[in-house]
Write a structure and sequence with these properties.
The chain has 490 residues and is an alpha/beta fold. It has 19 helices and 17 strands.
């Protein structure tokens, strides 16, 4: 669907926030240091200024980083839809009046020092300024947050975010966690449609963004980090509606008394009872991540072939007896099975697997010695077994780590492409998902990373450890089972 179609078909009331005609940074310092200056550098990095007008409000400078400065919003000649506040809270009232006079559509307050402090006077100031803006029809993101990441528009709040858009949306009360989610998942190949850090949520809260994402054609999977639930009934309704049609993965902070105290001082929201949150996830069909690693892994699982797992039978194809023992334990502890290799499958394996130094009883070690053909035949044969629903494999790498250092990038990419095509063919022919374990040894991290990115593009999941892969597989299976009676997502 084109952008023109989106605009002509009655866009959502929040659509203008994610697609502003022009953006103004209110209060950029001439001293290019600190987190506040990162907004300008990240927007320039994303080439926002080459797509849409970007204005800087600083009455003491003519230009910063090649961008013309203006003394106030009124002096900007064209319309401004979105304003990012980088000024101290004492200057915010002046910003509010200028924003109202300029008829902007949204204001994002990176500015902190309001209700999250616990101070009644600062909380009252937050209520006052947000009330003035919303009464004028201006929506507010924050205060105390990092704001928006929209790669299709060139909006970003940190350096190093991918410029290529994708299908995953990130919603977070925490700005630091929002950055970690985007940076961390992008290193595994995930690409994003939207990212929002909404902080105190004085106006726009999680449920507002969930309602928007339910209708957003650019978003297919939603991940969220939450510290407290605001307007619980509206939140429940929004998650329920969203989770009916799109995979939703929620990570809840503040599970302990210490975490709850930290959440309150961090965003001004009290953490809710976790049992209630668990029940909400079950009733709505959302997935609940326990850790940030879970959230990353479940997102990879929900956007790759692992989402297609149909049963608990897991085969491990990897060398090393000790590794196999610990891996089998991890798979079983995740609630999955490591079934014995069927006799028919053993017979097929023995056609090309020597007896000495190998094992064909799951976990499987065919001792390929770097032979890619034996490796491919092993994976294909095991994936075709009746009792196997998922294959976890490691790469034999036809080149050693030292040899890989001598390969050109083009040669390494060609080798990786060979593996990828084999795995895709196996999955298509057998219907069994194949997940790869990137056991980084020596100095092969660069090669492993290149493989992981290429694998993700082809919906092949990669994991650093067996426990993480097994836990993700178990959640994909349990998630699908919990959604009985709801529309099928996978």
């Amino acid at each position: 669907m084109t952008r023109q179609n989106l605009q002509s078909n009655s866009p959502h009331s929040l659509d203008h926030i994610f697609h502003p005609r022009a953006t103004a940074l209110f209060g950029v310092s001439t001293n290019a240091k600190g987190m506040a200056s990162g907004f300008l550098t990240s927007l320039i990095e994303q080439k926002y200024h080459e797509r849409s007008p970007l204005y800087i409000i600083n009455p003491k400078a003519d230009e910063i980083s090649g961008i013309k400065c203006y003394p106030n919003l009124q002096s900007i000649p064209g319309p401004v839809d979105h304003v990012i506040s980088l000024v101290p809270e004492k200057i915010v009232p002046a910003l509010v009046q200028q924003a109202i006079e300029k008829k902007v559509k949204s204001v994002h307050f990176y500015t902190a020092g309001f209700s999250e402090t616990g101070d009644p006077e600062r909380a009252a100031l937050e209520t006052k300024i947000v009330g003035e803006l919303t009464e004028a029809g201006i929506r507010v993101i924050g205060p105390n947050c990092m704001g928006l990441y929209v790669p299709s528009e060139g909006l970003a709040f940190m350096n190093g975010f991918p410029e290529t858009p994708g299908n995953v949306a990130v919603i977070s009360q925490s700005g630091a966690n929002a950055g970690d989610m985007i940076h961390g998942m992008s290193r595994r190949g995930v690409r994003f449609s939207k990212g929002v850090s909404f902080g105190n949520g004085a106006d726009l809260k999680a449920h507002h963004f969930f309602a928007y994402l339910a209708e957003d054609p650019e978003t297919e999977v939603i991940t969220a980090y939450l510290e407290g639930v605001q307007e619980g009934r509206n939140f429940f309704k929004a998650v329920k509606r969203l989770a009916e049609t799109k995979p939703v993965i929620l990570l809840k902070g503040g599970l302990t008394a210490a975490g709850a105290r930290a959440a309150h001082s961090h965003t001004g929201s009290l953490a809710g009872e976790i049992k209630i949150f668990d029940a909400m996830c079950r009733q709505t069909g959302a997935s609940r991540a326990i850790t940030m690693e879970d959230l990353h892994d479940f997102t990879v699982g929900a956007t790759t072939s692992m989402k297609n797992i149909k049963g608990t039978g897991v085969a491990l194809v990897s060398g090393g007896g000790g590794f196999a023992v610990l891996s089998a334990d991890a798979i079983a502890m995740a609630g999955l099975d490591v079934p014995s290799t069927p006799e028919a499958t053993k017979l097929k394996l023995r056609e090309f697997v020597p007896i000495a130094g190998t094992s064909i009883n799951n976990p499987i070690d065919t001792n390929t010695g770097g032979d890619i053909q034996i490796w491919e035949r092993t994976i294909r044969t095991v994936a075709g077994a009746d009792n196997i629903d998922l294959v976890l494999g490691t790469l034999p790498w036809s080149s050693s780590a030292a040899d890989q250092d001598e390969l050109t990038k083009e040669q390494l990419e060609e080798e990786i492409d060979t593996y990828i095509k084999m795995i895709v063919s196996i999955q298509n022919d057998t219907g069994t998902p194949v997940a790869m374990l990137l056991r980084q040894r020596g100095d092969d991290r660069a090669a492993a990373h290149l493989f992981e990115l290429a694998a993700y593009k082809n919906q092949i999941p990669c994991f650093a450890t067996v426990p993480r892969a097994a836990r993700t597989a178990a959640e994909m299976l349990a998630w699908a089972n919990r959604r009985a009676g709801l529309p099928q997502l996978f």
